[in-house]
Amino acid sequence: MCGHATLAAAFVLARELHHKPPLTFQTLSGPLVVEADGSRFILDFPARLSEPATPPAGLAAALGATPREVHQARDWICVLESPEQVAALAPDHAALAALPGSERVIVTAAGGEGVDITSRFSR
Known about the structure:
Blueprint: H1 3-16, E1 23-27, E2 30-37, E3 40-44, E4 51-52, H2 59-63, E5 69-72, E6 76-79, H3 83-88, H4 93-97, E7 105-110, E8 117-122
C-alpha cells in the first residue's frame, strides 16, 4: 500500500477522468477510500485498534528497557517514559523477532519539544 500513489491516482481519476469522489481502491490492506474536500483529497487509512496486554516474557530484556505500558494489535506497542529513552534503545532485534504473538515491535513515548511523539519500529 502506498498512500502517495493512491492520492495521485485519485487526483487523476477525479480531475482528468471526471470520476466523482469518494473513490474506493481495493488493496491487500482492505479498501482505501479517498474523499474530496474542495481542492484537497483525503485518504482514510485503515486502523488497527490495540488492547492493553501483558508483556511477553523477554520483552524488556530484548528492548533493553521496561515499558510503562504494553499494548497489542498486529504488533507489540511499548510505551516508554520519555523520548530520550526511545532514542537510547539498543534492542536485540533477533530476540524481538522471536517474541510470541508478533515479529514487529513499536516503541513510543511523548514527543518532546516541537513534536507529538517519538517512535521506533523493529521487524
